[in-house]
Design brief:
With 258 residues, this protein is α/β, with parallel strands linked by helices. Helix content is 48%, strand content 14%. Helix 8 links the parallel strand 8 and strand 9. The radius of gyration is 18 Å and the shape is globular.
Length: 258
């Protein structure tokens, strides 16, 4: 199925890419949709799948169901955009989760919405946790942004984390626990947090904290972040090169008329 008409209130047709339905949106449209969700009773899930996540969804029915139920699903990886073209269901373009989050925070700063950061490594050797460092950096970069709390991703009990988010009166939670844990955590506990929008953002806190550097702008603009990561982090080759069988699967689906 190439797509479906969006329900009333949504802004785009959803496009099926190997079993995961993506909102066909630009970055601005994704942010506008997220801000609209903040005016509705929550919780809402925003997901940012890349090819590896789509492949996992094909093997993990629970994960697939969580993605299907998400109110906003944006195409994070360039492989998603390429696969959509192969399937003759073109998307407007890639919307990296970290860019979406950055643009959303600018809007949140203007409207007083409250953000909680959840995930990444804890404090160590007198250094702040990754989430704490990310919060400090983001508040400098985005004046007026209200970050109402942080918690690292190395927790064993969900209850105390849920209560901390609820007590902080968060409107938005960036959940950076790695997939599929983060999406399943949102599905299981999002309603208890009181937040209206929870977004799965993988390793974004490491970037916001300055622990990991993104590819230079030229690589980003040409859809070659994966190549930069491959060159700078050869240890990630196994994960990055999974894009090839993903695209072959898309080609096979097209040839079968699927």
């Amino acid at each position: 199925m190439a797509g479906r008409e969006a329900p009333e209130g949504e802004i785009a047709v959803r496009v099926d890419v190997l079993g995961v339905a993506f909102d066909n949106v630009t970055k601005k449209e994704a942010v506008d949709r997220a801000m609209a969700l903040l005016e509705e009773d929550g919780p809402h899930l925003a997901a940012t799948p890349n090819p590896e996540m789509v492949q996992r969804a094909g093997k993990d029915p629970e994960f697939a169901q969580v993605l299907s139920a998400a109110q906003l699903v944006i195409p994070d990886g360039i492989g998603i955009v390429w696969a959509a073209r192969i399937l003759k269901r073109p998307l407007k373009g890639r919307v990296p989760g970290i860019d979406f989050a950055s643009a959303l925070m600018e809007q949140m700063a203007r409207t007083g919405k409250r953000l909680f950061l959840l995930g990444a490594a804890p404090a160590k050797d007198g250094q702040p946790s990754v989430a704490e460092q990310a919060a400090a950096n983001l508040q400098k970069a985005c004046p007026g942004l209200v970050i109402c709390g942080t918690h690292d991703g190395y927790f064993k009990k969900d209850g105390p984390v849920v209560r901390q988010i609820r007590d902080a009166r968060a409107d938005v939670v960036f959940v950076c626990l790695g997939f599929p844990r983060q999406e399943k955590w949102i599905a299981a506990h999002g309603g208890e947090t009181g937040a209206r929008l929870l977004i799965g953002l993988g390793g974004s806190l490491d970037v916001f904290a300055g622990r990991v550097k993104r590819a230079p702008a030229w690589f980003q603009n040409h859809g070659l972040e994966w190549f930069y990561r491959l060159a700078s982090q050869p240890s990630r080759a196994g994960r990055i090169l999974k894009i090839a069988p993903f695209l072959l699967k898309a080609l096979g689906a097209r040839l079968r008329g699927g």
